[in-house]
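To the wet lab folks,

You asked to see what we're planning to order before we commit. Fair enough. Below is the target structure as tokens, and below that is the sequence we designed to fit it. If anything looks off to you, flag it before the synthesis order goes out.
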């Protein structure tokens, strides 16, 4: 069984799946079609030790084995692990935890990893491994050219050229980060639920905040996607229009659809984990 970890600055996604599934098995159906036996999310605490992570991973793996058995598959222990982390200091603890829990050596997604993705930026080494994993999965899912919109701690919009190469990104504060910053910096601004407002002219402070953030971010995403599509089309005039794939907080799916003017798009909450599974499969060849 493969254990894939997508570690961000504030949270860690942990996924378990069978290693004999196709590397591009991104399901078309609902949750029942998921190739993942279990996906869990935990906080990325700087105080949590390798031993604590090991205990958590062992508990999560037990649930994954139970789910595999429920599907009529042979239960397996974790015998393969891969990590993507945007926090370099976290990697040694996670890798040690996996060694202690399962006795496996860990693949860390970084320079030199066999991703099959060419990175055409000024400094390829500085591209986050999360963006690389998402680009790998998006290319398998919708082909190229493509644009990936990640509604995470940061809003990251990445572009894949018609040749399937990572050519760059745009990064802005994430929606939750923007809301928290607004609350901290302005004494009279309350914390509010970021539901989509019915109008742009807010008639209360809460409505005004929702209009500014939710509708404002829809405009931000829509404008950046449009500009990226124009730039990708200018580089490859005969290529099809770039497809858009969303990922991150599933609650942001309506925001993405609004940003695209109602255009249909694919949203995969676990796009980075899918990319890690694809990279792990390539490494077995």
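Sequence we intend to order:
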């Amino acid at each position: 069984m493969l254990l894939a970890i997508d570690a961000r600055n504030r949270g860690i996604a942990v996924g378990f799946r069978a290693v004999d599934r196709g590397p591009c098995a991104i399901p078309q159906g609902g949750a029942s079609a998921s190739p993942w036996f279990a996906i869990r999310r935990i906080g990325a605490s700087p105080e949590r030790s390798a031993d604590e992570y090991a205990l958590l991973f062992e508990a999560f793996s037990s649930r994954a084995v139970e789910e595999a058995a429920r599907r009529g598959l042979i239960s397996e222990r974790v015998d393969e692990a891969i990590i993507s982390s945007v926090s370099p200091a976290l990697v040694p603890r996670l890798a040690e935890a996996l060694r202690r829990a399962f006795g496996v050596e860990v693949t860390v997604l970084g320079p030199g990893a066999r991703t099959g993705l060419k990175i055409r930026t000024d400094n390829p080494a500085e591209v986050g491994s999360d963006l690389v994993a998402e680009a790998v999965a998006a290319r398998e899912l919708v082909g190229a050219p493509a644009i990936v919109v990640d509604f995470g701690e940061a809003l990251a919009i990445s572009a894949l050229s018609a040749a399937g190469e990572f050519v760059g990104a745009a990064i802005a504060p994430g929606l939750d980060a923007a809301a928290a910053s607004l609350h901290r910096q302005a004494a009279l601004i309350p914390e509010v639920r970021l539901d989509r407002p019915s109008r742009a002219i807010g008639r209360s402070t809460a409505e005004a905040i929702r209009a500014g953030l939710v509708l404002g971010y829809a405009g931000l995403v829509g404008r950046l996607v449009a500009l990226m599509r124009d730039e990708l089309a200018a580089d490859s005039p005969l290529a099809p229009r770039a497809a858009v794939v969303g990922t991150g907080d599933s609650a942001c799916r309506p925001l993405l659809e609004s940003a695209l003017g109602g255009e249909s798009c694919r949203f995969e909450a676990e796009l980075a984990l899918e990319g890690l599974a694809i990279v792990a499969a390539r490494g077995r060849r």
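Structural context that might help your review: The mean pLDDT is 89. The two ends are 16 Å apart (CA to CA).

Thanks,
Computational group
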